[in-house]
Amino acid sequence: xxxxxxxxxxxxxxxxxxxxxxxxxxxxxxxxxxxxxxxxxxxxxxxxxxxxxxxxxxxxxxxxxxxxxxxxxxxxxxxxxxxxxxxxxxxxxxxxxxxxxxxxxxxxxxxxxxxxxxxxxxxxxxxxxxxx
Amino acid sequence: xxxxxxxxxxxxxxxxxxxxxxxxxxxxxxxxxxxxxxxxxxxxxxxxxxxxxxxxxxxxxxxxxxxxxxxxxxxxxxxxxxxxxxxxxxxxx
Lengths: 132, 93
What we know:
The complex is a heterodimer. Chain A is of the alpha/beta class. Chain B is built from two helices and no strands. Chains A and B meet through helix 1 and helix 5 of A and helix 1 of B.
């Protein structure tokens, strides 16, 4: 069983992504852990202390704790974690720049913009490919 | 048992929801807030409809009362004129 962590403060995205991933996967081999509440950043930080996700899909801008903070903690606890950053913000935003810097300095870290066409298809394809 | 067409349709719908979620992220609008506002607007509209209906009912009552008053005044006036007319008629005789 592979664990996928998905963190986004937009409920619609989390619910839809989970359903689509389950439909596309079909193997029932994925344990999808999602966080979407107002305190999702904090909750995720607590969760990763005791659980290792095989792939973490993180929205960059969250309420309070950011996706970058979660990624930093994942990197500090686990060896080369697979992280996918997500954002709906402009690429010139400071947080997005930080995420891009992280991609350059760490392996297995990628980035998708929610305004790009079919961003979710690319992430689902990546998850299925990596968890097979 | 879902047909292949239904599954395709579901996937398309989920994809559209994800695209919508992406655009909402960019505009910083929370769908939850939009839904709350929508519910609030429906409540406000229902309340306004109730008030309009209440005003209409009151207006109907006022119109009926006014017609009643007008009829009473006319009847009174007619009776008064009739009495005066009869008094004048009698005094002439």
